[in-house]
Amino acid sequence: MTTDSKIDFELFHTEEEDLREKKAVLLFHGLTGSPFEMKKYGNFLFKQGYDVFCYSFPGHGERLSEIQTVTWEDWCEFAQEKYDKLRPNYETFFVSGLCLGAAMGIYLAENNKDLTGVAALSTTLFLDGFCIPWTSCLIPLGLSTIIRYYYTFPEDECLGIKNELTRKSLAKLMAKTTVGMDNYPLNGVKGLLDLSKNVRKNLSKVTCPVLCIHSKYDNLASTKSANVVMKNISSKIKRYIELNDSYHMVLYDNEKEFVMNEVIKFLSKFSAKTLEKESAKI
């Protein structure tokens, strides 16, 4: 299921730099989001020497109207297709994502043993954050009926960001653009929860290094999601970092620099050249 969007981005170093280690990160955005929300993160990773790729999930970005027609299988097929195309070109290859994107990163780790590692941010396997509306208890009813094609529940006022100035700036930007939604279509929520259910069933298949970063005050998904991942994956190398001054959108909130720096520290430990040096010491 190949799709192209004007807001997708690919950042790669020139052929003149071929002596460098070939390493890349495939990024995945969140539910009802777009590659736009990953651009600053992508530029940061690129400056650290990684080729970076990010594409809109089906039904997202410039194709928001299609979210009522796509399924979680469509998202998985799309992600696997991108992975299959890019992975052979690199010695080390990581996946990182936010929210839905983090869950997709774990999904790819379950199904691809040659994945170098995953950096999962605000992993969303359960919708149980502090700003989820009380009406969420009705979601199971809506998911099993035609209601899911017509109902949405709104984004909470905090927009997933604790920092008030950043929140106000994002609100103004969202009012001017159509690359993201200010609500959660129930069919999209169904896709996220179906993907999450599948991911939870297969966590033991994950063997690559995994970094989970999650806020204690995530408004969309509590730390339960990250804890379930950490408890059930088979990875010998796994690290969990809990934030105390952010909400769900950790790449834009008060601890964004800390988050990005921790991701780089994690990725750098598992590059092909680093592992080669460590093996030589033994």
Briefly characterize the structure.
The protein has 282 residues and is an alpha/beta fold. It contains 9 helices and 9 strands.
Characterize the structure shown.
The model is unreliable at 134-155 (pLDDT under 50). The longest helix is centred in the C-terminal third of the chain and has 16 residues, at 186-201. It contains nine helices and nine strands. Helix 1 links the parallel strand 2 (23-28) and strand 3. It is of the alpha/beta class. The chain has helices spanning 39-47, 72-86, 100-111, 139-143, 164-176, 186-201, 224-232, 256-268, 272-281, and strands at 9-11, 23-28, 51-54, 92-98, 117-121, 152-154, 183-185, 210-215, 238-243.
Query: What would you call the shape?
Result: globular
Radius of gyration, in Å, reads 18 Å
* Counted beta strands: 9
Spatial separation of the terminal alpha carbons = 45 Å
- Class based on secondary structure composition and strand pairing: alpha/beta
How much helix, percentage-wise, in residues? 25-40%
Question: H/E order of the elements?
Answer: EEHEHEHEHEHEHEHEHH
Question: What are the segments in which pLDDT stays under 50 over at least 5 consecutive residues?
Answer: 134-155
Mean pLDDT: 83
| Number of discrete helical segments | 9
Strand order of the largest sheet: 1-3-2-4-5-8-9
Q: What does the largest sheet look like?
A: 7 strands, mixed
Beta-strand residue percentage: 15-25%
